[in-house]
Amino acid sequence: MGTRHDDDPPLYFETHVFVCGNRRPEGHQRGCCASKGAEKIRDYMKARAKELGLTGVRVNQAGCLDRCELGPCAVLYPEGVWYRLDSFEAADKVLDEHIAKGGRARALQLP
Ligand code: FES
């Protein structure tokens, strides 16, 4: 596992939010996060993080994170915590409970 070393430089971002934006053709057996609204939710989350003045967080679009059936999904690093972001409200909760307050948005966490 990649653990941080004492002589690594400080984290450039305290938290990176990777939101899957993968799109598959209609009818694909695994589905995709884009067809469940992930792009709008990512854009919303990115804008809200800025509006709230949350420094040290970066919301990025990711390719398939391989948990398609549970999506729309996102993973936060360096914590390695996964969430199902199925609404703007879910994005707000993660921003507030996880990023602003340093806790966990337990109800949205993926196993
Ligand atoms: S399509 Fe989003 S995790 Fe695979």
How many domain regions?
A: 1
Q: Report the structural category.
A: alpha+beta
Extract low-pLDDT stretches.
none
Which topology does CATH recognise?
Glutaredoxin
Number of strands: 4
- Radius of gyration (CA) equals 14 Å
Strand-and-helix sequence, N→C?
EHEEEH
Name of the level-1 CATH class: Alpha Beta
N→C terminal distance: 19 Å
Q: Which cofactor or ligand species appear?
A: FE2/S2 (inorganic) cluster
The average pLDDT is 96
How would you concisely characterize the structure shown here?
The chain has two helices and four strands; from the N terminus they run βαβββα. The chain is α+β, with helices and mostly antiparallel strands and 111 residues long. The protein has a four-stranded mixed β-sheet, with helices on one face.
SSE arrangement:
Layout lengths: L14 E6 L17 H14 L5 E6 L10 E5 L3 E4 L3 H13 L11
Parallel strand pairs: 1-2
Antiparallel strand pairs: 1-3, 3-4
Helix pairs in contact: 1-2
Bound molecules: FE2/S2 (inorganic) cluster.
Question: Would you mind describing this structure in some detail?
Answer:
With 111 residues, the chain is an alpha+beta fold. The chain has one domain (15-108): Glutaredoxin. It has 2 helices and 4 strands; from the N terminus they run βαβββα. Strands 2-1-3-4 form a 4-stranded mixed β-sheet, covered by helices on one side. Strand 1 (15-20), helix 1 and strand 2 (57-62) form a beta-alpha-beta unit. Helix 1 packs across helix 2. The longest helix is centred in the middle third of the chain and has 14 residues, at 38-51. The radius of gyration is 14 Å and the shape is globular. It binds FE2/S2 (inorganic) cluster (FES). FE2/S2 (inorganic) cluster is lined by residues 20, 22, 32-33, 64-68, 71, 73.
